[in-house]
Amino acid sequence: MALYDWLLFLHVLSAFALVAALVVFWTVAIAARNVDRPVDSLRFFRVAKPANILVVIGTMGTLIFGIWLAIDADAYKVWDGWVLAALVLWAIAAGTGQRGGQTYAEAQKLATRLAGEGRAGEPSAELRTLLQDRRAMWLNIVSSVGVLLILVDMIYKPGA
Amino acid sequence: MSVFAAIRPDEWNFPLLLHVLGAMLLVGGLVTAVTALLLGWRRDAASYSRLGFWALLLIAFPAWWLMRIGAQWIYSKENFNEDDEPGWLGIGYLTADGGGLLLLVTIILTGIGVRRLRGGGEGPSALTRVGGVLAAVILLAYIVAVWAMTAKPG
């Protein structure tokens, strides 16, 4: 296998990891939306744990191997319009995704603290509010749409 | 490869988008299901198994169709010679169709397991355990398929 093939495989595999993480996050966000007991929310947060690793691998891998590919391949340049568009979309998706995820991280911290205080089974209005936070949901929607647009950009390669 | 990508006809883009998006969502559904079903081995079997089952049924299964329809659509445009198809295409067919069949079996087994757990079963059901292992096998097969589709051996 040539270097280009390895880079393309690792770039696409990173994209799969990123989308897989988003799918897990959305599943957990939707399933935990009406949860108010720490014990129940912690159960969902355990499912999201591998996705926390996948999202880092996916976000960094797509960027690093993507730029490497653009440098390695004769047909493309890093300053091609569709590559620059992908970089801008990547920054938007990563930034909004990270900010949206902070609310869920706060919810996880709160649930862990309440469980540590022996209140794992007691409903918490504060926990419910965090899990239903509309701003976090919209940030995650923007992030996911950004990733979808990157995929469209990668396939259509406008201007290439 | 880079030359191939650069000269790919524009009318292939939409089926390719469907194929890749379907494959990505399929892998996402499988990652969710495998994580939930494996967590259910150790604790809270009923709720984790239920989440795993629904991830398979509502995410992985429709995504498999999206991936498979996109694949067939592109295949119909590529005009491959049936006697001399490239090796990566064979790997793609094997993993897509074999994985699809295995996915169906996994959904049925996990669904029965979840039903038994709802009926008052204690601890993880053997069926949901088998479902977790099968889902992990399918996930590995699709990672091999991603390698075959990108590196295109043969």
Radius of gyration of chain B: 18 Å
Distance between the termini of chain A: 25 Å
- Average of per-residue pLDDT values of chain A: 95
- How would you classify the helix and strand content of chain B by structural class? mainly alpha
Give structural notes.
The complex is a heterodimer of chains A (160) and B (154). Chain A is mainly alpha-helical and 160 residues long. Chain A has one domain (3-155). In chain A, 81% of the residues lie in helices and 0% in strands. Chain A has helices spanning 3-31, 38-72, 81-116, 125-131, 134-156. In chain A, α3 runs antiparallel to α5 (134-156). Chain A is elongated and about 60 Å long. Chain B is elongated, with a radius of gyration of 18 Å. Chain B is an all-alpha fold. Chain B has five helices and no strands. Residues 1-5 of chain B have low confidence and may be disordered. Classes of the chains: A mainly alpha (160), B mainly alpha (154). The interface between A and B is large, with 39 and 37 residues.
Topology:
The complex is a heterodimer of chains A (160) and B (154).
Chain A: H1 3-31, H2 38-72, H3 81-116, H4 125-131, H5 134-156
Chain B: H1 2-7, H2 13-39, H3 45-78, H4 87-118, H5 126-151
Structural descriptors:
heterodimer, A: 160 residues, mainly alpha, 81% helix, 0% strand, B: 154 residues, disordered N terminus
Summarize the structure.
The complex is a heterodimer of chains A (160) and B (154). Chain A is mainly alpha-helical and 160 residues long. Chain A is built from five helices and no strands.
